[in-house]
Write a structure and sequence with these properties.
Layout (H helix, E strand, L loop, with lengths): L4 E3 L5 E3 L7 E5 L24 H12 L6 E2 L9 E3 L18 E4 L5 E6 L3 E7 L5 E6 L1 H6 L1 H13 L6 E5 L9 E3 H8 L9 E3 L4 E4 L1 H11 L4 E4 L14 H4 L5 E7 L10
Length: 269
Protein backbone atom coordinates (compact mmCIF):
# COMPACT_ATOMS: atom_id res chain seq x y z
CA UNK A 1 0.00 0.00 0.00
CA UNK A 2 1.24 3.50 -0.85
CA UNK A 3 2.83 5.62 1.89
CA UNK A 4 0.27 7.87 3.49
CA UNK A 5 -2.33 5.10 3.71
CA UNK A 6 -3.24 2.58 6.39
CA UNK A 7 -5.77 -0.22 6.47
CA UNK A 8 -9.28 0.51 7.73
CA UNK A 9 -12.21 -1.75 8.66
CA UNK A 10 -13.47 -3.73 5.67
CA UNK A 11 -10.32 -3.20 3.61
CA UNK A 12 -10.89 0.55 3.25
CA UNK A 13 -8.23 3.24 3.72
CA UNK A 14 -7.60 5.63 6.59
CA UNK A 15 -5.30 8.46 5.42
CA UNK A 16 -2.00 8.69 7.26
CA UNK A 17 -1.18 12.39 7.50
CA UNK A 18 -0.24 14.84 10.25
CA UNK A 19 -3.60 16.32 11.22
CA UNK A 20 -5.18 16.72 14.68
CA UNK A 21 -6.86 13.64 16.12
CA UNK A 22 -10.17 15.47 15.92
CA UNK A 23 -10.05 15.12 12.11
CA UNK A 24 -11.54 11.90 10.77
CA UNK A 25 -11.14 10.65 7.21
CA UNK A 26 -11.85 7.53 5.20
CA UNK A 27 -11.55 6.29 1.62
CA UNK A 28 -13.62 3.31 0.55
CA UNK A 29 -12.61 0.63 -1.95
CA UNK A 30 -14.66 -2.09 -3.66
CA UNK A 31 -14.41 -4.15 -0.47
CA UNK A 32 -17.74 -5.02 1.11
CA UNK A 33 -21.10 -4.02 -0.30
CA UNK A 34 -23.89 -5.85 -2.04
CA UNK A 35 -23.66 -4.71 -5.68
CA UNK A 36 -23.20 -7.32 -8.39
CA UNK A 37 -21.87 -7.55 -11.93
CA UNK A 38 -19.87 -4.61 -13.25
CA UNK A 39 -20.55 -2.76 -9.98
CA UNK A 40 -19.59 -5.67 -7.71
CA UNK A 41 -18.69 -4.56 -4.21
CA UNK A 42 -19.36 -1.30 -2.40
CA UNK A 43 -20.60 0.87 -5.26
CA UNK A 44 -21.74 4.20 -3.78
CA UNK A 45 -22.72 5.98 -7.00
CA UNK A 46 -26.43 6.28 -7.76
CA UNK A 47 -25.86 7.51 -11.32
CA UNK A 48 -23.82 4.51 -12.51
CA UNK A 49 -26.52 2.19 -13.86
CA UNK A 50 -26.42 -0.04 -10.79
CA UNK A 51 -29.60 -1.12 -9.02
CA UNK A 52 -30.74 1.81 -6.88
CA UNK A 53 -31.65 -0.29 -3.87
CA UNK A 54 -28.26 -1.99 -3.92
CA UNK A 55 -26.50 1.38 -3.88
CA UNK A 56 -28.67 2.61 -1.02
CA UNK A 57 -27.81 -0.53 0.93
CA UNK A 58 -24.12 0.13 0.26
CA UNK A 59 -24.50 3.69 1.52
CA UNK A 60 -26.20 2.39 4.64
CA UNK A 61 -23.24 0.04 5.23
CA UNK A 62 -20.82 2.97 4.87
CA UNK A 63 -22.90 5.09 7.24
CA UNK A 64 -22.23 2.57 10.03
CA UNK A 65 -18.56 3.61 9.99
CA UNK A 66 -19.15 7.37 10.06
CA UNK A 67 -20.19 9.86 12.73
CA UNK A 68 -22.99 11.19 10.51
CA UNK A 69 -24.52 10.71 7.07
CA UNK A 70 -22.37 12.04 4.18
CA UNK A 71 -23.26 15.22 2.33
CA UNK A 72 -23.22 13.92 -1.26
CA UNK A 73 -22.64 16.36 -4.14
CA UNK A 74 -23.69 16.28 -7.78
CA UNK A 75 -20.22 16.50 -9.31
CA UNK A 76 -19.77 18.14 -12.71
CA UNK A 77 -15.96 18.45 -13.12
CA UNK A 78 -16.04 22.12 -12.20
CA UNK A 79 -14.57 24.33 -9.50
CA UNK A 80 -17.56 25.23 -7.35
CA UNK A 81 -16.90 24.84 -3.62
CA UNK A 82 -19.75 24.78 -1.12
CA UNK A 83 -20.17 24.70 2.64
CA UNK A 84 -21.11 21.09 3.36
CA UNK A 85 -23.67 22.31 5.91
CA UNK A 86 -25.75 23.57 2.97
CA UNK A 87 -25.84 20.12 1.33
CA UNK A 88 -28.80 17.81 2.10
CA UNK A 89 -27.92 14.96 4.45
CA UNK A 90 -27.37 11.71 2.53
CA UNK A 91 -29.56 12.83 -0.38
CA UNK A 92 -30.84 9.65 -2.08
CA UNK A 93 -31.70 11.28 -5.40
CA UNK A 94 -28.46 12.07 -7.26
CA UNK A 95 -30.32 14.46 -9.56
CA UNK A 96 -31.50 16.55 -6.62
CA UNK A 97 -28.09 16.92 -4.98
CA UNK A 98 -26.36 20.29 -5.01
CA UNK A 99 -24.03 20.81 -7.96
CA UNK A 100 -20.45 21.29 -6.79
CA UNK A 101 -17.09 19.54 -6.90
CA UNK A 102 -15.79 20.34 -3.44
CA UNK A 103 -17.20 20.92 0.02
CA UNK A 104 -15.69 22.24 3.24
CA UNK A 105 -16.89 21.77 6.81
CA UNK A 106 -16.05 23.81 9.88
CA UNK A 107 -18.87 22.38 11.97
CA UNK A 108 -18.26 19.22 13.97
CA UNK A 109 -19.95 16.04 12.76
CA UNK A 110 -20.55 17.22 9.18
CA UNK A 111 -19.16 14.68 6.70
CA UNK A 112 -17.91 16.10 3.39
CA UNK A 113 -17.67 13.51 0.61
CA UNK A 114 -16.71 13.05 -3.02
CA UNK A 115 -17.19 10.07 -5.36
CA UNK A 116 -14.56 8.95 -7.87
CA UNK A 117 -13.71 6.16 -10.29
CA UNK A 118 -10.40 7.49 -11.72
CA UNK A 119 -10.54 11.21 -10.89
CA UNK A 120 -8.41 12.30 -7.97
CA UNK A 121 -10.06 12.76 -4.57
CA UNK A 122 -8.26 15.33 -2.43
CA UNK A 123 -8.75 15.92 1.28
CA UNK A 124 -7.62 19.08 3.05
CA UNK A 125 -7.50 20.12 6.70
CA UNK A 126 -6.08 23.12 8.45
CA UNK A 127 -3.32 22.27 10.90
CA UNK A 128 -5.45 23.31 13.88
CA UNK A 129 -8.34 21.03 12.89
CA UNK A 130 -10.81 23.89 12.55
CA UNK A 131 -11.87 23.20 8.96
CA UNK A 132 -11.74 20.25 6.55
CA UNK A 133 -12.64 19.75 2.89
CA UNK A 134 -13.05 17.12 0.18
CA UNK A 135 -12.51 17.90 -3.51
CA UNK A 136 -13.14 15.99 -6.74
CA UNK A 137 -10.17 16.74 -9.01
CA UNK A 138 -10.15 15.17 -12.44
CA UNK A 139 -8.19 16.98 -15.12
CA UNK A 140 -11.13 19.26 -15.93
CA UNK A 141 -11.53 20.21 -12.31
CA UNK A 142 -7.79 20.79 -11.95
CA UNK A 143 -7.83 22.98 -15.06
CA UNK A 144 -10.78 24.91 -13.63
CA UNK A 145 -8.88 25.50 -10.39
CA UNK A 146 -10.94 23.39 -7.99
CA UNK A 147 -8.09 22.83 -5.54
CA UNK A 148 -7.08 26.48 -5.42
CA UNK A 149 -10.74 27.41 -4.92
CA UNK A 150 -11.11 24.89 -2.11
CA UNK A 151 -8.07 26.20 -0.23
CA UNK A 152 -9.33 29.77 -0.60
CA UNK A 153 -12.83 28.82 0.55
CA UNK A 154 -11.44 27.17 3.68
CA UNK A 155 -9.36 30.20 4.61
CA UNK A 156 -12.24 32.55 3.90
CA UNK A 157 -14.54 30.45 6.06
CA UNK A 158 -11.97 30.52 8.85
CA UNK A 159 -11.32 34.24 8.34
CA UNK A 160 -7.68 33.30 8.44
CA UNK A 161 -5.82 33.97 5.17
CA UNK A 162 -2.66 32.47 6.64
CA UNK A 163 -4.21 29.19 7.81
CA UNK A 164 -1.74 26.33 7.27
CA UNK A 165 -3.38 23.60 5.22
CA UNK A 166 -2.40 19.96 4.82
CA UNK A 167 -3.57 17.80 1.90
CA UNK A 168 -3.97 14.09 1.19
CA UNK A 169 -4.28 12.61 -2.31
CA UNK A 170 -6.50 9.54 -2.59
CA UNK A 171 -6.60 6.75 -5.18
CA UNK A 172 -6.81 7.87 -8.82
CA UNK A 173 -5.76 6.71 -12.26
CA UNK A 174 -1.98 6.61 -12.40
CA UNK A 175 0.25 8.22 -15.04
CA UNK A 176 1.06 4.90 -16.71
CA UNK A 177 -2.59 4.55 -17.77
CA UNK A 178 -3.97 8.08 -18.06
CA UNK A 179 -3.57 8.84 -21.76
CA UNK A 180 -4.73 12.29 -22.85
CA UNK A 181 -4.47 14.57 -25.86
CA UNK A 182 -2.69 17.86 -26.47
CA UNK A 183 -5.87 19.69 -25.43
CA UNK A 184 -5.43 18.51 -21.87
CA UNK A 185 -1.79 19.64 -21.81
CA UNK A 186 -2.86 23.05 -23.13
CA UNK A 187 -5.65 23.39 -20.58
CA UNK A 188 -3.37 22.51 -17.70
CA UNK A 189 -0.54 24.72 -18.92
CA UNK A 190 -2.93 27.69 -18.93
CA UNK A 191 -3.28 27.49 -15.13
CA UNK A 192 -0.10 25.67 -14.04
CA UNK A 193 3.11 27.11 -15.55
CA UNK A 194 5.07 23.92 -14.91
CA UNK A 195 2.34 21.54 -16.06
CA UNK A 196 4.39 20.09 -18.92
CA UNK A 197 6.60 18.33 -16.38
CA UNK A 198 3.59 16.14 -15.49
CA UNK A 199 3.08 14.97 -19.10
CA UNK A 200 5.06 12.17 -20.75
CA UNK A 201 4.86 11.99 -24.58
CA UNK A 202 3.34 8.72 -25.84
CA UNK A 203 2.97 9.34 -29.57
CA UNK A 204 1.74 12.07 -31.92
CA UNK A 205 -0.28 14.52 -29.80
CA UNK A 206 -0.68 11.91 -27.05
CA UNK A 207 0.60 12.03 -23.48
CA UNK A 208 0.40 10.20 -20.20
CA UNK A 209 -0.64 12.69 -17.51
CA UNK A 210 0.23 12.54 -13.82
CA UNK A 211 -2.80 13.76 -11.85
CA UNK A 212 -0.93 13.51 -8.56
CA UNK A 213 1.83 15.82 -9.79
CA UNK A 214 -0.68 18.28 -11.25
CA UNK A 215 -2.57 18.36 -7.95
CA UNK A 216 0.62 19.11 -6.04
CA UNK A 217 1.32 22.01 -8.42
CA UNK A 218 -2.21 23.36 -7.95
CA UNK A 219 -1.98 23.11 -4.17
CA UNK A 220 1.42 24.81 -4.17
CA UNK A 221 -0.16 27.84 -5.83
CA UNK A 222 -2.12 28.34 -2.61
CA UNK A 223 0.86 27.66 -0.38
CA UNK A 224 -0.14 24.09 0.46
CA UNK A 225 3.27 22.43 0.64
CA UNK A 226 2.52 19.51 2.94
CA UNK A 227 0.88 16.93 0.66
CA UNK A 228 0.56 13.23 1.47
CA UNK A 229 -0.79 10.13 -0.25
CA UNK A 230 -0.85 9.79 -4.03
CA UNK A 231 0.45 6.99 -6.19
CA UNK A 232 -2.38 4.50 -5.62
CA UNK A 233 -3.66 3.67 -9.14
CA UNK A 234 -7.34 2.81 -9.58
CA UNK A 235 -6.82 1.48 -13.11
CA UNK A 236 -4.14 -0.99 -12.00
CA UNK A 237 -6.16 -2.93 -9.43
CA UNK A 238 -9.58 -4.18 -10.55
CA UNK A 239 -10.03 -6.15 -7.34
CA UNK A 240 -9.57 -3.12 -5.09
CA UNK A 241 -10.82 -0.13 -7.10
CA UNK A 242 -13.52 0.93 -9.51
CA UNK A 243 -12.12 2.48 -12.72
CA UNK A 244 -14.22 4.03 -15.47
CA UNK A 245 -11.30 4.18 -17.91
CA UNK A 246 -10.61 0.48 -17.43
CA UNK A 247 -14.18 -0.87 -17.41
CA UNK A 248 -16.42 1.87 -18.92
CA UNK A 249 -19.29 0.54 -16.79
CA UNK A 250 -18.12 1.16 -13.25
CA UNK A 251 -19.13 1.90 -9.69
CA UNK A 252 -17.78 4.72 -7.53
CA UNK A 253 -15.71 4.76 -4.36
CA UNK A 254 -15.99 7.55 -1.78
CA UNK A 255 -13.46 9.71 0.02
CA UNK A 256 -14.80 11.42 3.13
CA UNK A 257 -13.65 13.80 5.87
CA UNK A 258 -15.12 15.36 9.01
CA UNK A 259 -14.34 16.96 12.37
CA UNK A 260 -15.25 14.72 15.27
CA UNK A 261 -17.25 15.73 18.30
CA UNK A 262 -14.39 14.30 20.35
CA UNK A 263 -10.81 13.27 19.46
CA UNK A 264 -11.54 9.64 20.33
CA UNK A 265 -14.19 9.12 17.62
CA UNK A 266 -12.12 9.37 14.44
CA UNK A 267 -13.65 6.23 12.94
CA UNK A 268 -16.57 4.13 14.10
CA UNK A 269 -15.77 0.39 13.91
Amino acid sequence: MTAGMTAAPGGWIVPSWPVPSSVGALATTRAGGVSQGAWAGLNLGLATGDDREQVLRNRALLRMHLPAAPRWLRQVHGARVIDACAVPVDGADAGAAIEADAAFAAERGVVAAVLTADCLPVLLADSAGRCVAAAHAGWRGLAAGVLQATARAMRTGLRDPDARLVAWLGPAIGPDHFEVGADVLAAMSAVLPDARAAFMPRGPHKFHADLYALARMALAQEGVQHVYGGGECTYCDATRYFSYRRDRVSGRQATLIWINASPDSALLV
